């Protein structure tokens, strides 16, 4: 099983006509900064797509105030978006195996453009919640396919592709609150129309720059991502990610309310948070994994993240401490994103798009339900309880992860078999990015 996975990984990562990394001990890793235009087009679209996660954060209080809604009603913008994204992830392989990767990317981007624009033109929270659900369908089609396209097309091997994808995620998460804060300062409708315009640009770039992709010979059924979860390694990491995302989106969806800041100020706070997500995903995570391994890094990182959310719950009345704790959370989120994504793509024997869809389905369920439950807990008990529960769920994730400790070691061996060792390649690529910046 492991040998099959390693050969598949090497085939997917190696550019056509090149010598696989594993056959040459002295070959330098390909440059991460020299990519085909198609990869940059998809990466740009990823940035805009991930902007949608934090885009609404700065305008949540304004939406609650101007549309006469409660915080729990407003946080449904996250819930509808992420829960629908989760369910739609199950359809991505079915669709892409019948129309090809490029058409799936284009379809996903087109859906996002339409529903983002309609959300900006709507007049009630209920309408926006419903339209964010439609937005989630497009997001699912795009996210799962874009990761597979980048992994298969980027130079720099598997490790470089993951870093490139996580860089796009980090930049998107960082820019989302900034753009949302600036446009939201004009009108709460601004962020939605802004995403529609940017996604339209990404749509055109994808159509022009990404070469047509053939329709795969094998058709994927809808149930394959569910069946893939029978593999214990994939299920363990997915459930751990569900718990982690519960804490993540409790923080992202409900922390803006106790801050009591204006739209611009909220945008700056979450931009600082997003910058830390990007920096630690690209530069710190590879070094930590190289030094401590997947398991130890994730155990400590999740434990620190749980403590961080607990601090947020304890400090909701202390604005300075609350803001600092929320920004610092970006450190733990960035590290978790990169290491877990790499582990998921190597721990399971199934094809990468199917693994990505299975993983996305489970983890987005946690992210979608968390903001809504945080709002309900705050209304029925107090705001502290919402964050206490978020911290406890992340702690449960550590227990789940520990139950698959041996499988994490297997994932690490699979990554090492891709070449000189993923850790070494990651460090070299991260150093290259650091010197370039």
From TrEMBL:
Keyword Transmembrane belongs to the record: yes
Pfam (any one): MFS_1
PROSITE patterns reported for this sequence: MFS
Lineage: superkingdom: Bacteria
Cellular compartment(s): Cell membrane
Ranges annotated as spanning the membrane: 38-56, 76-95, 107-129, 135-155, 162-180, 192-212, 233-254, 266-285, 297-314, 320-341, 353-373, 385-404
Key word Membrane present: yes
Primary location group: membrane
Record-linked CDD domains: MFS_YfmO_like
Membrane topology: Multi-pass membrane protein
Name of the protein this chain belongs to: Major facilitator superfamily (MFS) profile domain-containing protein
Native source species: Catenulispora yoronensis
